[in-house]
Amino acid sequence: MRAGFGQFKDATPEYLRFAAQYGATDVLLNGPNLPNAGGIWKLHDIVKLRLAVESYGLKLSAIENVPTSFYDDIMLNGPRRDQQIEHMIITIRNIARAGIPVFGYNWMPSMVWRTEPELIRCGAVATAFDDAEAQKLPLTHGREYDEEEMWGNLEYWIKIITPIAEEEGIRLGIHPCDPPVPVLGGVPQLLRSFEAYRRLIEIYPSDSNAIEFCQGTFSEMQGDDIYEMIRYFGERRKILYVHFRNVSGQVPRFHEEFINTGYVDMYKAMKIYDEVGFDGFFIDDHVPQTYQDTEWGHRGRAFANGYIQAMIEAVTKQG
Ligand SMILES: [Mn+2]
Predict the structure, then answer these.
(1) Which long-range contacts (CB under 8 A, 24 or more apart) does 289-297 make?
(2) Could you give the C-alpha distances from 145 to 9, 176, 181, in angstroms and in order?
(3) How high is the pLDDT of residue 318?
(4) Cβ distance 158 to 209 under 8 Å?
(5) Model pLDDT, residue 195
(6) Nearest-10 Cα torsion for 88, 89, 92, 96
(7) In whole numbers, what is the pLDDT of the chain averaged over residues?
């Protein structure tokens, strides 16, 4: 088990030096700023990213998220679906051929939703969500989408892309829908429960059909047990990497917390990853905004990542 930094878009010396100096081994780039070649990322652009990361002694272990415009019609069965599938196949092949073993993405046409932030310890600013507020907002995609219609779109895609991923030797994983409420803006938040993820991995059983395990979002799922989900998917080798962050509670209302002040016992969680033989990396995902921190949150991330490194050491030394 290893510590990584992620959630930045550019493989700049500033971020990479920070990651290396604070003891990470792995890097995850989220939605990298690559030239958009007509809905495709080109191989040489991705290779350049990997080489930049490796020049700091780090490993580019995953890319997370392409622009939503690359595949929104795949999620919603829109008019450009077939063309987007062709293009996504090219991009995913290029990520694999550039030497990056994991691609994480999501199934959220309108991305992550939050309502008004909350002030937590000594005025630190944490993102928050209140479904009562969110449900007042208008439709995002012109109409209400049906749950089974959305499952049909997902199944269609998974059955096409998984054999291609197998052929290329890349593993794909989907981030849970955050916040995991039934519907936002008329679009079902499909991947919002333990049950939904069991259904996802059964669509096409394969090492290449896996999970981007955002422990933060899994912790937000109403009525589901976070420790049981880590064990279940960990034992089945479905966890590609972990967003190791903490929250105050589950939907319909929660706010994000410091890594060691949320409702989840992070030591207990880390022990389960170790027990099931998880051998991937953890990133901090996002952190509360503290006084005079940067927008990306260098201070907050250094704190959270140090905590991750300490937890890994604690559970692995204990044996
Ligand atoms: Mn996440």
Answers:
(1) 289/124, 289/125, 289/126, 290/124, 291/123, 291/124, 296/7, 296/8, 296/15
(2) 31, 18, 14
(3) 77
(4) yes
(5) 98
(6) -170
(7) 97
As beta bridge partners, residue 243 has 214, 283
Alpha carbon of 175 to ligand 1 centroid (Å) = 7
Ligand 1 centroid to residue 209 C-alpha, Å: 18
Please tell me the distance between residue 173's alpha carbon and the centre of ligand 1 in angstroms: 12
**Structure-token match 């007509």, residue found:** 38
Q: Ligand 1 center to residue 84 CA distance, Å?
A: 24
What is the DSSP-derived secondary structure letter of residue 140?
S
Residue 171, both tokens: 């593993």
Residues with CB under 5 A from ligand 1 (ion): 214, 243, 285
DSSP state of 15: H
- First vs last C-alpha separation in the chain: 13
Q: How many domains, the chain?
A: 1
287: CA distance to ligand 1 center in Å?
Answer: 11
Structure tokens belonging to residue 110: 């309108």
**Domain CATH number, residue 132:** 3.20.20.150
Q: Which domain holds residue 259?
A: 2-318
Torsion 69-75-79-85 (CA) sign: positive
Question: What is the model's pLDDT at position 95?
Answer: 98
User: Residues with Cβ < 8 Å from 15, sequence gap 6 or more?
Assistant: 5, 8, 296
Mean pLDDT throughout 211-230? 98
Contact 2, 274 (CB under 8 A): no
- Please give the helix or strand (H or E) that residue 288 lies within, else none: none
| Distance from the alpha carbon of residue 192 to the mean position of ligand 1, in angstroms | 13
